[in-house]
């Protein structure tokens, strides 16, 4: 029973991180139709930014600073890379973002080296003891931060005027332009939001694991699994799928030998693609 409860709570905590990472990816894909393979590398950049900033008052201040910097970076990447190639086939978007990921990894390798970097737990030590399961406080906070960021992103999209414009652009860019919506502005904001969320959680992710130039590879693969399971472009679907993936991975790791725990996620992924290729929630933001 103790193993079951530990896997259950650990899976839920991991879901908070996956939610936040996948929400930004789902937003960018849902609005622009861009398959952003640099998403994991951008999280890695946010974590290195947190390493470079260090302790500025508190980890919360660091999170806000890195979030602002990453949001600006997202807007710059849209203006410099995505917008000029937006009219091209999706294959070109994939190649551009894949190339961007490789460039970012090599730049970090040159600047910081290959050795993993980390930081202390930001003064938040100890664990929450719940029904015999031990839950580190930094992971508990990361869960609530990721879930809150995802919820805030969803409320922004559904309850604000700019959010309504983003939804309109995601459904029909031509009709949105005819209605007087600045589609380019909407897409730039979407990219900035998607990357900014990564900056918000990056310092907290750094308290749970060290960062190296290739760390983003794992996160981008899991994020794509979450987005596709939830329904490409669906924020609600991404949130639900994050919980499913987190639980599947942790229960697999607890009850299956060796590295078969992660294999359980891929088996689930294949089954969903075969039985419900549109994902759990379809493709609506």
Overall form: globular
For the termini, the CA-CA separation is: 38 Å
Poorly predicted residue ranges: none
Q: Please, what is the average pLDDT?
A: 83
Tell me the fraction of residues in β-strands, as a range: under 5%
- The class by helix and strand makeup works out as mainly alpha
Which sequence of strands runs across the widest sheet? 1-2
How would you spell out the order of helices and strands?
Answer: HHHHEEHHHHHHH
The biggest beta sheet reads: 2 strands, antiparallel
Number of helices: 11
- Strand segment count: 2
Q: What is the percent of helical residues?
A: over 70%
Report the radius of gyration as a whole number of Å.
Answer: 19 Å
Provide tags for this entry.
globular, two-stranded antiparallel sheet, 285 residues, mainly alpha
Detail the topology: elements first, then pairings.
Blueprint: H1 2-32, H2 39-53, H3 59-85, H4 90-112, E1 127-130, E2 133-136, H5 137-159, H6 161-171, H7 173-178, H8 183-205, H9 215-230, H10 235-255, H11 260-275
Antiparallel strand pairs: 1-2
Helix pairs in contact: 1-5, 1-8, 1-9, 1-10, 2-3, 2-4, 2-8, 2-9, 3-8, 5-6, 5-8, 6-8, 9-10, 10-11
